[in-house]
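Title: [Solved] ABC transporter ATP-binding protein 3D structure

Original question kept below for reference.
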Amino acid sequence: MPVIEVTDLRKTYGGRAVVDGVSFAVEEGEIFGILGPNGAGKTTTVECIEGLRVPDAGRVRVTGLDPVADHARVARVLGAQLQESELQAKLTVREALELYASFYPDPLDWAPLAERLGLGEKLSARFGKLSGGQKQRLFIALALIGNPRIVVLDELTTGLDPRARRDTWELIEDVRAGGVTVLLVTHFMEEAQRLCDRIAVIDKGRVAALDSPAGLIRRSAGATVISFTPSAPVDDRDLNALPELASVEHRDGRITLAGTDETVNAVITLLARHRITAHQLRVVDATLDDAFLDLTDDRTKEATA
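Solution (posted by the thread starter after getting help):
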């Protein structure tokens, strides 16, 4: 059952449609990702879900509630870590955690949460003295402290070092395992591919694609890339006849093909039939990066139009 429903959402600034008919639903218990280029409308969409912005048109529901009309009730079930946030500079980490915990009827025990996020030794530190990564971890803690059914994380690990980023990923997986639905806005493809059950790619204010990470990768123009240096010339007609071939490139005697697993199988069979050896053979699967670029690159769209 969906806990977030967005239908034909529209938001305009200065005559420009920043969000232009976005629709998707987030199922209870899943990690749902939103990807998109800068300025695509991701944060505006999320702020409408949080009730921080009023849509110009369309419908948004969080556990069946209107985030604007029922804002107080939505705030009890939805925690949010915003893309940009600030606290009073002299507030300590402990004071911030205690203050936010006091806002909720059934908050989490903030002490283990602070330890898990690497803030245990910073409880007496003032907010203004924290590093960018420490501030980010504090805001994640504040988003979770109300024991929400849904948590919205906008650019979750921006500013974190690789070790802290992976620790945070493990925390989010634990949060989901506890039954919390996660809406994740990110530009880290590795993060989205590891964490998300489904991803909506938003481009120019519209949903360009919605699928699982694996499903989006399969949509890539070349879901698999095979490259090799042949021991003898290969007829271009044979290469162009390969099944599900997306592209062929010749460079310095090396051949690079983009296609699918079926393309790989077919080219290996072709080479064996002609007794051609593939030197320095490399087979690389496409990534979410490749799929993202295919979905949002205007040049790719024009080439396939």
